[in-house]
Structure formats: structure tokens, C-alpha cells
Amino acid sequence: MTAAELRDVDRLSDRAPRVSPERLVAELVPPPHFAEARFETYVPDPAQPTQAAAVAALSGFAAELSSPPKKGLFRRAAPTGPGGVYLDGGFGVGKTHLLASLWFAAPGPKAFGTFVEFTNLVGALGFARTVDALGQHRLVCIDEFELDDPGDTVLVSSLLSRLSERGVRLAATSNTLPGALGEGRFATQDFLREIQGLSERFASVRIDGEDYRHRGLPLAPQPLSDDEVRAAAGARDGATLDEFAVLLAHLASVHPSRYGALLDGVAAVHLLGVTPVADQNAALRLVVLADRMYDRDIVVRASGVPLDQLFPDELLRGGYRKKYLRALSRLTALAR
Predict the structure, then answer these.
(1) Which residues pair with 300 in a beta bridge?
(2) Alpha-carbon dihedral sign for residues 299, 305, 308, 312
(3) How far is it, in rounded angstroms, from Cα 267 to Cα 298?
(4) Other Cβ atoms within 10 Å of 151 Cβ, number
(5) CA atoms within 13 A on the CB side of 275
(6) Distances (CA, A) of 203 to 78, 171, 212, 311
(7) CA 54, CA 262: separation in Å to the nearest integer?
(8) What would the pLDDT profile of 130-144 be if each residue is shown by its tens digit?
(9) What are phi and psi of 128, to 5 degrees?
(10) What average pLDDT does the segment 42-65 reach?
(11) 127 Rama class: left (phi>0) / alpha (psi -120 to 50) / beta
């Protein structure tokens, strides 16, 4: 592919999207990757009975939401069951699939988003307007509640408290801390501690199992050559092509709340010269981008090091271990 032909391929590093607060609210729905998620499409591992039990528990929660108690004259009646449910398990056991299934089974109005998306919403609207925007919902689902960021954890915990006071039912999964039970895989007590006054309103549902994305499969495919990546980008509609180092630098100039918009219309991301990312800030931005790509089922083709070598050992041993492992799991799946 010639230099002239390369200029015809879109680059993520040329994009500078702007996202309105209204779009942030409107997009609080399960991402495209989970658009077809239903309890019926979740396949429990027969060797892990907690998975089938989780489906039953969440189905019951959804059924209760579908026939709520009658409201009083001025406020919503208190729920007869738990005000919230927390899905506790390692990455790749289907927590997001089940959370999305709950959202689809529940009556509206309702909202679904990641922890980061809700913190971004508060940043865009302000705390009071966010409470008002979500306060009339029957259900708010928060995926990957982040237990490793104290400031944002307090913010979202306060948001959940205000919503709960208004009768909103809640569901959450969490980003567990390393060093917790099962080497960061289970963190019910961490979650309940962080949401403090809400803890007695949550029922915990534990989900054991292996990462389904890699059951019996190899880790990352072998990287392509630079020429192969360029050729693949030039041959596909909706493709982008970026030098990896240039894209990393560009991500620092785009707020993570806009990474979804950064990928508007993109079907495949092509990266040249992938190298390990040792800088933690750059690595965390890449984690958010990986999540947004996974949400949209965007194919990844890359040259350089294999994607499972993206984060060095010092990062994988640190405080954000689970985020990095989740990103590696998802990027590897997209690269297949």
C-alpha cells in the first residue's frame, strides 16, 4: 500500500469527538456486544453450579421489578425484596451478560452503564442533575463498580444512596481489588464496605468459573507484519489505521467519556508497532478504549508484540491488576 493510499484510511488519532450530556444519558443502555443478551442465552457451566443459581436469582429479581408494589400518594412504595443485587465473580464468567439480561427483562425507565460512564455523567451534568435524571428510573445497572479509585467510589456510592432513597432498584458488578479473596476474583465485602449505608439493601450473588473467552483456546494470536496490517486496513470498510505510539499520545487529549464516540462508525481497528505500555496513565486509558471496542465488537489487527504482552509484569502486579487482565482478555478475543 502506498503512502497516498494510506491517507485514505481513517485514523483514530485524527478524531476529536464532542459528546453532549444528552447523548451520555441516552446511551445508558447495554452496549452492542450485549444487545442480544438474555437469561436464555447465558450458558451456565455445568461444573459451576453458582452460574445457574445466579440466573435463577436475577430472573426472580427481574420478575419482582415487573410487578412492583403499588405506589403511595407521593412516593414509590418500598420494595418487598432487596433494593439491590451485586454480582460477585472473576472476569469472563458472564457478569456483564447477566447484568444486561436483567436490564432487558426489567420494565423501564431504566439505565445501564459502566462505573466510568456514570462518573462521567456526574461530571457532565453535576451531581444534583444526575440524581434528577436517574431518580425516576425503576432500575439502574452499574457494570464494573471500581473499588480501586477512592474518590470516584465515594461519588458513585453517594449517587446510589440518593437513587435508593427515591425507590430506584440497583444492580452492580465490581472491579475487584487485587489481593482479595481468590486473588482479586471475589470482593463482596470490599463492595459492601464501599457503599456503606447501602450494604444492607444489597443481596450478593456469587458466580464462580473460568474466563469463558479463553476456555480451551490459545491466548493471543501471532501479530501480523506491518504490511499485512496496512493491507487489511485498506481492504475493509469502516477500518482505521494508526501508529500505536501516536494513538496512545492522542488518547491523552481525549476525555475517556468520549472514547465511545471516538469509535463511531468503526468496524475494525488496525495498529502498527504495538509495544508494551509501561506508563500507568497511558495503560489505563488503553483499558477504557479496549472496553469501548469490546462493547462494539470491533475487530483488532495489529503488528508488534502479541496483545497478551501489552502490559508488563510490574503493572499486572499492581493495584489495577484486574483492569489490565480484563483488557487483555477482551483484546485477545477481538484479535481472534
Answers:
(1) 269
(2) negative
(3) 5
(4) 8
(5) 10
(6) 16, 9, 25, 35
(7) 35
(8) 999 999 899 999 998
(9) -65, -45
(10) 93
(11) alpha
Closest-CA residue to 141 (of 167, 102, 90)? 102
Please state, in angstroms and rounded to a whole number, the distance separating the CA atoms of residues 34 and 233: 26
Which burial class, exposed, middle or buried, applies to 277 when counting CB atoms under 10 A from its CB (0-12, 13-18, 19+)?
buried
Cα angle value 181/184/185 (rounded, 5°): 80
Return the percent helix, strand and coil in the chain, to nearest 5: 50, 15, 35
pLDDT digits (tens, 9 = 90+) for 197-206: 666 777 888 8
Q: Is residue 41 scored above 60 in pLDDT?
A: yes
Give the three cell numbers for residue 95.
457478569
Question: What residues contact 316, with CB distance under 8 A and at least 6 apart?
Answer: 324, 325
Say if residues 206 and 236 touch (Cβ distance below 8 Å): no
pLDDT at 151 over 80: no
Question: Which pTM value belongs to this model?
Answer: 0.73
Question: Tell me, what's the pLDDT at 207?
Answer: 87
Give the Cα-Cα-Cα angle 192, 198, 200 (nearest 5 degrees). 75
Q: What is residue 277's three-state secondary structure?
A: coil
C-alpha cell at 310: 501489552
Return the domain boundaries, the chain.
3-18+215-335, 46-209
Q: Which CATH code is given to the segment(s) 46-209?
A: 3.40.50.300
